[in-house]
Automatic annotation (TrEMBL):
SUPFAM superfamilies cross-referenced by the UniProt entry: DNA breaking-rejoining enzymes
Any one Gene Ontology molecular-function term assigned to this protein's record: DNA binding
Protein name: Tyrosine recombinase XerC
Taxonomic lineage: Bacteria, Pseudomonadati, Pseudomonadota, Betaproteobacteria, Burkholderiales
Gene name of the encoded protein: xerC
Stretches assigned to the Tyr recombinase domain: 174-403
DNA sequence: TGACTTTCTACGGAAGCGGC
DNA sequence: GCCGCTTCCGTAGAAAGTCA
């Protein structure tokens, strides 16, 4: 057992203005310095009430207790890695003696507070091994089958005899609305009024970047993104199609990087860069200066494409398809999120097909995990992989993926280029 | 197309609850 | 009144929608 005491050493201290702050000790009454300092840091923030500090302290104490009981020891908190953290999340979801489980939101709250402590520690120079991305916490928790409690019973939807690894019953209409089928993606390309949006759709479909990340793509990159050069026809290095370009961008308050397929950049250079030059003229006529090199996407009128413009143009697709008599587009919606989701799903589908594992039970595959990680630009993705494997197997039975017959990047690019020619 | 409004939801903070 | 634990809730910021 670790030990947590509320002590009054800070009573009357003007910076804290509270009588009690939690202090952590190990079994031998050795001070756990970092968690204690975290508690002091929490207490020092003026808006936090004593209840908040108390709550955070208990969450951490409970976690340390578990570390002790599980044999890792609370002193070793810095050596705890993602696997052990996952084990703790599983533990949180276990039914108690009376058969009850804690609510999903409660468990999520616990997980986030522990994450808060670790990220505070890192910021303050206390190195540790827990490399978890904030976005992943929920996925990690969802992987635990015991936490079924967060399904709102008041929402009635068609439940299928299939459980996602998240523990939530598959909500059929909802899952379908999350994806753009490959055939729909291909059908959507010619429907765009402006080629720039077809290019954007293709980039998301292939690389799974978020719109905000994508809009940071440079026309001519500098520093870390120096690989991005707007090549004229015949100027590109011969191996560009086989290489990948390092693309670094700010994403959700962090710096992220992905390997951007050289082949994709090659296609952009061929199909769009000449247009970008024409549009830059319009921009220059209007403003007197050239558009910045940090901006790749300009629309027909020579304005930099914004998230809002992108969203609107994407959203138009289903209605445009309805008006065009020969359009093969069948989906109900068309958004960037759906393309991103499709990218991951089709990617996993292709990989499973190649390995002959379609329709089989999930088996963790480190190589595939690594590939998906690269694709999505995440640090760690294990539970996400599991999610997509199940999603793929779900849709295989629906014949939803049947239309994908070619390799991923090639098929998306050829669809784009065909449309362009 | 941009300014503005409405809706959604993730998150941190704090209240609630039962037992002593 | 304190404690251990769980759940609730207000809000900021993003997404989605509307209007001129």
């Amino acid at each position: 057992m670790s030990i947590m005491e509320f002590a009054n050493g800070l009573i009357g201290h003007p910076a804290y203005k509270r009588s009690r702050v939690a202090i952590f000790f190990d079994n031998d009454h050795g001070l756990l310095e970092e968690p204690t300092r975290w508690m002091m840091a929490v207490a020092k923030r003026k808006s936090r009430s004593i209840e908040t500090s108390r709550n955070y302290a208990h969450i951490l104490a409970r976690y340390f207790d578990w570390l002790d009981n599980a044999g890792y020891g609370c002193v070793a908190w810095q050596s705890i890695d993602e696997d052990i953290f996952d084990a703790y999340l599983v533990h949180l979801g276990q039914p108690r003696e009376d058969g009850s489980t804690i609510a999903y939101d409660t468990a999520l709250h616990y997980a986030y507070r522990i994450y808060d402590f670790y990220s505070w520690a890192k910021k303050n120079g206390y190195e540790h091994s827990l490399e978890v991305d904030r976005d992943e916490i929920e996925h990690r928790l969802d992987a635990n089958q015991h936490l079924l409690g967060h399904i709102k019973p008041s929402v009635s939807v068609e439940k299928l005899n299939f459980n996602l690894p998240t523990g939530r019953p598959a909500l059929h209409h909802r899952e379908l609305d999350r994806l753009v089928a490959q055939s729909d993606y291909e059908a959507a390309l010619p429907l765009f009024d402006d080629l720039v949006y077809a290019i954007i759709a293709t980039i998301i479909r292939i690389t799974a970047v978020r719109p905000k990340d994508l809009l940071q793509l440079p026309y001519r990159g500098k520093a870390v993104n120096v690989d991005f050069v707007p090549y004229d026809e015949g100027e590109a290095p011969p191996d560009l199609g086989r290489r990948s370009l390092h693309y670094e961008f700010a994403s959700k308050g962090k710096v992220r990087s992905i390997e951007f397929p050289g082949k994709l950049w090659q296609a952009i250079c061929a199909a769009y860069i000449p247009l970008r030059r024409q549009r830059a003229e319009l921009y220059r006529d209007r403003t007197g200066i050239s558009p910045p090199n940090s901006v790749l996407f300009l629309n027909e009128a020579g304005y930099a494409v914004t998230y809002q413009m992108l969203y609107r143009e994407f959203a138009k697709i289903p209605s445009l398809a309805a008006k065009a008599l020969d359009a093969k587009f069948k989906g109900r919606r068309f958004t960037a999120c759906m393309l991103r989701h499709s990218c991951a799903t089709y990617f996993v589908y292709e990989a499973l097909k190649q390995k002959g594992r379609l329709g089989q039970h999930f088996v963790y595959d480190a190589a595939l995990d690594e590939e998906l990680r690269k694709l999505m630009g995440h640090n760690d993705i294990k539970t996400t992989l599991e999610y997509y494997v199940h999603l793929v197997n779900r849709f295989v039975h629906d014949d939803l993926l049947v239309d994908l017959k070619r390799a991923q990047v090639d098929s998306c690019l050829s669809a784009l280029l065909e449309h362009h020619d």
